[in-house]
Design a protein that fits this description.
The chain has a domain at 22-82. It is α+β, with helices and mostly antiparallel strands. 26% of the residues lie in helices and 20% in strands. It is extended and about 50 Å long. The longest helix is centred in the C-terminal third of the chain and has 22 residues, at 61-82. The protein has a three-stranded antiparallel sheet with strand order 1-2-3. The protein contains two helices and three strands, in the order H-E-E-E-H.
Length: 103
């Protein structure tokens, strides 16, 4: 087989220990411009006057759309095994950090 064969396009992805531990977030804030989507993951604690962004992911619009599709597919698979994920109403969280709008 040729090295240019698309079937040989394997990507070796490394995951170091610190990243593998993950970061807990219970809030995601999404902003966008014409060229990118910015997703800030936050861990907000009840009663705490302040919360910090724990991780920021910046995606192209095309990658954002693929991410939403992949997440929806995974949620469907999860629910087919474990049952429906129940959503519940939460009071709105006041957002007062950083600039918003076009980047």
């Amino acid at each position: 087989m040729s090295e240019n064969n698309p079937k040989n396009n394997n990507i070796n992805i490394e995951l170091d220990e610190k990243v593998a531990e993950g970061t807990y977030a219970n809030l995601a804030i999404i902003n966008h411009s014409a060229s990118e989507f910015i997703v800030d993951f936050v861990n907000i604690m009840p009663g705490a006057p302040k919360a910090k962004v724990k991780s920021r992911i910046i995606l192209t619009p095309q990658h954002a759309k693929r991410f939403v599709k992949a997440l929806a597919e995974n949620i469907n698979r999860f629910e087919s095994v474990y049952g429906e994920i129940n959503d519940y109403e939460q009071p709105p969280t006041p957002m007062n950090f950083g600039p918003t709008g076009q980047a």
